[in-house]
Amino acid sequence: ILNYVKKEYTSGRTPNPCVFCNWKIKFDLLPLMAQKAGIKFDYFATGHYARIERLGERYVLKKGVDEKKDQSYFLWKLTKEQISRTLFPLGEFRKEEVKKIAKRLKLPLSEKAESQDFFEGDLNFLLPATKKGLIKDLKGNVLGEHRGISLYTIGQRRGMGLSHSEPLYVVKIDPKENVIYAGTKKDLFKKRFSAVDINWVSIQEREKNFECFVKIRYKHTPARAKISIKNIKNVEIEFSEPQMSITPGQSAVFYDGDILLGGGIIEDVYE
Fold it and tell me: Which residues 6+ apart lie within 8 Å of 4 measured at CB?
């Protein structure tokens, strides 16, 4: 997981380690190690705010009842087999209800601070050192110097060190040329991008184009989009309306109502 994170940052992309940690560690390695330790169990349960429902012979992954705490976005890479043997007991509750139950049972977790990341502590060691380079505007004019592309992400405003008549944001990162392109807020809005490493967790692989709602980061409100199937692992996505800060390396997750259909990794963002 750490090697993946470092590689992505070095490539000028923004990784989503929680997605890979869930897929490879929490829902794969941990149950396997429990079995090897001789622990017998029928299901593997976690505290994620999400739901799993059985529909006939298949299982579907759904948003948690508490929309503000829903964590289904981070679970799109789970396999059909993984969700068939998983339970999310908190998914039917709101966070406030869970805290009240914990307090009533005098559990110390009732006062625990919110957890926001897959790692607790200083994350600087995950940011590999990259060379300094130029910051340019979208016309190619030099505006300043950046401290290394691993320290920047699409949509970032702070830390640019630029003086301009309008606020400037990171709108594009070119790892080959070691250049960061800056623009105004309107330059962050795009409609089309490609996604790779597609996984259909709740449905069979799609062969025909379709429409659904797509979420491009955890706090993003899902927006209507058309999914064009290129092959089993690659799709192209076009939003009905431009969305802000579509970021290579982040996850694009597909929803039909509260059902999480699947997802992929954002690859190329088109003008």
Answer: 15, 17, 20
Please say whether the beta carbons of 268 and 250 come within 8 A.
Answer: no
Q: What is the DSSP letter of 206?
A: P
Q: From the CB of residue 192, how many other CB atoms can be counted at a distance below 10 Å?
A: 17
As given in the structure block, the two tokens for residue 153 are 């992400």
* Partners of residue 173 on adjacent β-strands: 180
Q: What is the largest CA-CA distance in the chain?
A: 65
Rg from Cα positions in the chain: 20
State the chain's mean pLDDT as an integer: 92
DSSP classification of residue 203: S
Q: Determine the 3-state secondary structure of 255 from DSSP.
A: strand
How many whole angstroms separate alpha carbon 81 and alpha carbon 64? 20
Q: What is the dihedral sign for C-alpha 257, 258, 263, 268? A: positive
Q: Look up tokens 């949509």; give the residue.
A: 155
Residues 180-210 pLDDT 10s? 999 999 999 999 999 999 999 999 988 899 9
φ, ψ at 53 (rounded to 5°): -125, 140
Contacts of residue 172, Cβ cutoff 8 Å, sequence gap at least 6: 138, 154, 180, 181, 183
**Amino acid in position 228:** S
Q: Angle at Cα 33 formed by Cα 198 and Cα 24, nearest 5°?
A: 15
CB 267 within 8 A of CB 194: yes
Helix (H, G, I), strand (E, B) or coil at 167: coil
Instruction: Provide the whole-model pTM.
Output: 0.91
Task: Give the pairing of strands 44-45 and 86-87.
Answer: parallel
Q: What is the DSSP letter of 114?
A: P
